[in-house]
Write a structure and sequence with these properties.
- This protein is mostly beta strands.
- The chain has two domains: 83 residues, Sandwich (Immunoglobulin-like); 75 residues, Immunoglobulin-like (Sandwich), CATH 2.60.40.10.
- Helix content is 13%, strand content 50%.
- The chain is built from one helix and 16 strands.
- The strands form four sheets. The protein has a five-stranded mixed β-sheet, with no helix packed on it. The protein has a five-stranded mixed β-sheet with strand order 10-16-15-12-13, with no helix packed on it. A three-stranded antiparallel β-sheet has the order 1-3-6, with no helix packed on it.
- A hairpin with a 2-residue loop joins strand 15 and strand 16.
- It starts with a helix and ends in a 6-residue tail after the last strand.
Length: 204
Amino acid sequence: MFKKSLLLFLLLFLINCGGGGGGGEDSGAGPSNDPPVASFSASPLSGAAPLAVNFTSTSTNATTHDWDFNGDGILDASGVLVQYTYAEAGTYTVTLTATGPKGTDVLTRNNYVTVSASPPAALFTAEPTSGKKDLRVEFSNSSLRYNTSVWDFGDGNTSTEDNPVHTYTTAGNFDVTLSVVGEGGSDTNVLSGYITVDDIQTLQ
């Protein structure tokens, strides 16, 4: 029993000595002594502004990771995992510079991220929304991301003014529709029965 234990101890000792020596020799020629290779991925690669994109550097043999997210040659961020928000529509070139003990490598991906314009949102208010005819109503356009607008006042009259004033000369409940168009598309907002106009009461 003692001889078996001694043999096992000697065998383990020799294995450990051999492993340690091999590790020392390999460490001098390991990957850390190779030049860096820049590589990266990102998600999402397209969407409406504002678009938040997560970037991941998969570079090898690099200790620093420097990013230019919009192709202007200016450093925007550093790190392996970074996020950048594109506020405006456009197609963007992304560059990663990976630097390590053995040099620098640069990877540029042209037209890598595509950002589209956000769709408009048709919004409005009016004052007053009820009263006797002839009722003069002031409309306020509070729409977002739009270039042009068209109003339908529900009584057969329309307007392309931004903040129109309209007078209702007949009694009734009127639907008001605002349609807007922007770089990201179009939107329509309909408020049913929004304006209430009563007849003028006559004295008996």
